[in-house]
Amino acid sequence: MSRPTETFTLLSPRHRLLAGMTLALSNFMVVLDLTIANVSVPHIAGNLGISPDQGTWIITSYAVAEAICVPLTGWLAQRFGAVRLFTMSMLGFGLFSLLCGLSMTLGMIVACRIGQGLCGGPLMPMSQTLLMRIFPPQQRGRVMGLWAMTTMLGPALGPIVGGYISDNWSWHWIFFINLPIAALCIFSALTLLRPVETERVKLPIDYIGLALLVFWIGSLQIMLDIGRDHDWFGDPMIVALALMAGIGFCIFLIWELTEEHPIVDLRVFRHIGFTSGVFTLALCFGAYFAGIVIIPQWLQISMGYTATWAGLAASFVGMSAMVIAPIVGRVVGKLDVRLMISSGVLWIGAVTLWRAHWTTDADFWTVALPQLVQGFGMPLFMIPLTTLTLGSVRPEETASAAGMQNFLRTLAIAISTSIVLTGWGDGQRVSRNEMVGTLHPDATLADLTSRGFTQEQARQMVANLVDAQAMVVSMNHVFFIAALVMFAAAALVWLAPRPMAKVDTSSAH
Q1: Second label for 307, Cα 20 to 30 Å away, from 16, 242, 345, 500?
Q2: 454: left (phi over 0), alpha (psi -120 to 50) or beta
Q3: pLDDT of residue 501
Q4: pTM above 0.85, yes or no
């Protein structure tokens, strides 16, 4: 028999608070793992005796597995129940984290990272869905504010935590630190969340849909990850992967839309509020990640920052977001969410445009201040957008909608990362060639050699200066384009109809 709609009445206020903190913590752990391993790849590669290029498979394997599993969340929640799925996923995530830390070969750590990604994929949408189930409607805005803070803070803190652990302890501990958090979340789920378990529906397994999903997402993710190293479509293998992803995606769409029991419920896109919201989310997160990808690398490569200080400069966005998120959570039900979303996105776009004027003379606060200011706009974007998207679908579709929303965000991040790094690299080469064509370095070289530098040292100094300038010019171009994408996304959200009443999403299955 189905649970009552008012599932929040089954928990006491104290239990709701503890459960909410546990779910937010679980989301933070999974989001943190998206970036914590990035700065540790050189340490892992050196320890395992592999090349840095091989080491990137540690990141790729996790991203592919998570991208495949996230859209399956709705089907898995129906099949096993939301609380059971959360508990099983957390148990698997903790187990594979332990095995990742114990890995001694590339094959073992890649296999364990795949397991970690498969188990971690449902945790983000499930934490979101369960939060909506255990809190009453008037508190959900504030609760989603807490959830949004963990989503924003995780990627910013990942490089800091990963760099500090790798430099001062051992790379193994970037995985071991997940174990106590996983144990706490499992215990809390078993003791607190059982009363809000959802009904289990024994649906047939859509094996063809699952195979098509794995095929096209795997092909796309691998293409995005190795494309830059293989000259993109100049390499037949990249062309083949692109064709496989494109054809697989088209067949997948046709199959899932005509299948009686699809593995991924694409019918949620019939709700214009959900569709416009998730595409706004995808565009914004893609543009937002331009800064997360570029800024730490620029600070370390060109500006002489350590991994820890580079991560710290980028992390100020999370600090200011934590201050404003509770306030946004309180007013989200009182204002037109489209206006809040559009204002937040425009704010972030304006800050991104501010960054497009950096120079090589930028000091720490020149870099950190825009991050701090941007944080005030992030909750205005994240919290109302979640309310709009999940409030636009039917209650029984909430788990599928949450999974699809997180899937599109993950996919946007993957695509954005590849596009941004490629554009940044190509822009550097173009800018460098333009600078070299207009330079007249003879006087500078003569001055440097008169100061005791050899001819080769003088040339290298000039070359380094040109490279540094080309890097920052190209970065500014990327930020300018990212700002334009933000402004377009701010307009896109107005395609959604104005929410006329509060939609109860607590009965997600």
Answers
A1: 345
A2: beta
A3: 44
A4: no
d(CA 423, CA 58): 24
Over the stretch 62-99, which tens digit does the pLDDT of each residue have? 777 877 787 777 778 878 888 888 889 999 999 999 99
* Dihedral class, residue 304 (left if φ above 0, else alpha if ψ from -120 to 50, else beta): left
Tell me how far the alpha carbon of residue 181 is from its chain's centroid: 20
Superfamily holding 274-509: MFS general substrate transporter like domains (1.20.1250.20)
Topology, domain 1-204? Growth Hormone; Chain: A; (1.20.1250)
User: pLDDT tens, 342-361?
Assistant: 888 999 999 999 988 888 88
Give one DSSP letter per residue of 66-89, joined into a string: HHHHGGGHHHHHHHH-HHHHHHHH
Residue 78 and residue 68: Cα distance in Å, rounded?
A: 17
User: What's the pLDDT score for residue 33?
Assistant: 77
Asked if 210 and 263 count as a contact pair (C-beta separation under 8 A), the reply is yes
What's phi and psi for 86, nearest 5 deg?
-60, -45
Distance of CA 405 to the CA centre of its chain: 12
